Amino acid sequence: MANDLQKPAKMRRQPKQVRSQERVQSILGVAEQLFIESGYDQTTTRAIATRAEVPIGSLYQFFPDKEAILKALANHYFEQEYHLFVKLHTELAEAPIAVYVDRMVDAFDQFATDHPGYRAVLEQLIDLMVVADINTLDTYDPQIIKELAHFLEQRNSSLDSAKCELIATTIVKAVNELLWLSFTRDQIFREQLLAETKTLITAYLQTYQI
User: Fold this and answer.
1) In terms of residue numbers, what domain contains 192?
2) Over the Cα atoms of the chain, what is R_g?
3) Distance between CA 117 and CA 144 in Å, rounded?
């Protein structure tokens, strides 16, 4: 099982026709809702197929098992987060670094709040996989790190590319962990931790005159 968990999420075949694409989206949407309602362990592929109103054979045409569905949902969220980063990154390119950090942290926190399935999916993914395996599945974090490193190099040309990549990696990994921790606590602690995260990252960047 461990070796299987290390493999990136792969569908059995990619839907090409519009009808097939709609069927896959329906399967993923239903699966996400059932994971929220009943939990991953209690949800079966048959239950997903039944609620999605597709034959179980059609589900298996695209997804070999429930884990593949979970990974596809996770990848969908990683992609959405990446596009959110790109959008804000472009808008805030010239902003003071404190404003940049504040808006970024708030945006990713709001993303998780607006998508209750995000936490259900990621929690289960963490239970199934170790962090290193999730990093293998998530192909978007390296893209975020690369673009953030380029941004840092533009803000301070005295920093070389290797140093900027190290700083960007530190930021992305620290923010990911702190935001995830915030979701496990009550609202008051969560708000306090988000504020501390902003202070931490802003101060860290200011030491490099970003």
Assistant:
1) 73-206
2) 19
3) 22
Distance (Å, whole) CA 65 – CA 11: 9
0.85 surpassed by pTM: no
Pick the closest to residue 148 from 194, 208, 196, 192 (CA basis).
208
Residues 126 and 49 in one domain: no
Which two structure tokens, joined as six digits, stand for 207?
Answer: 């030491």
Separation in Å, CA 135 to CA 21, 65, 151, 182: 27, 21, 22, 20
- If asked whether residues 126 and 34 sit together in one domain, one would say no
84 touches 108 (CB < 8 A)? yes
Phi, psi dihedral angles at 80 (to 5 degrees):
-60, -40
pLDDT digits (tens, 9 = 90+) for 187-203: 999 999 999 999 999 99
Report d(CA 99, CA 108) in Å as an integer: 14
